[in-house]
Sequence to fold (215 residues):
Amino acid sequence: MMCISNNATMRLVQSIVRPIAIGCLLTIAIASLQAAAATTDGRNSEMVGDSPEVRDAATQSERQAASARSVAITLLQALDISERQHAGSRAVDVSFVATSGERFYRILTLVGDQVLEHHIDADNGEAGAARIYSTIDSLDQTDRANVSDLMRTGLNLSDAVALAERETTGIVISAGLIRIGGKLNFAAVALCGDRLKEVVLEPPLQSKPRRRGDG
Fold:
């Protein structure tokens, strides 16, 4: 796991504070950000904040937020545990899940040409058996572009989580990759008191290696 020594290595794109009652955990927060990105790219999009899904998720979000405050294993620790399961793996998505019987982090990692799904117990850090979530070739065009760009940056999702927690002074409960304006961004949702704060960070990309004969 890499530690960020300089905040300038990633550009803060936006930081939005929302009440927990909006029900904006990562799946909804990312949908909101992607809707904004779609509008930026000139495509029509609905206001996610007004959707029935957001209103119906309010109660569930409040329960999950309350549960997230009392876990023994942080999201950063869970990322470290999942990435140590397979040498060279890189996390691309993580979310905190709380049900009536268990609390865990659902983490997707890149391993070779596959995307694996891990469940890390939020109370004791035990890792369940990973399962194949998808192959990289089976991902949609946007996800493949994000994976390709992730390989061109020296930063990991864990770096974005660490920076988001410093930016918000909160506890990140979800994070993943999104695409805004054709560029890779890290998105994180942090629990800050009775609010959820969305943070979007744009990592610097390394230039593609030049091939012999290129001008």
In short: DSSP finds six helices and eight strands in the chain. Residues 10 and 203 are 5 Å apart (CA to CA). Residues 26-40 form the longest helix (15 residues). Residues 1-8, 17-50, 209-215 have pLDDT under 50 and may be disordered.
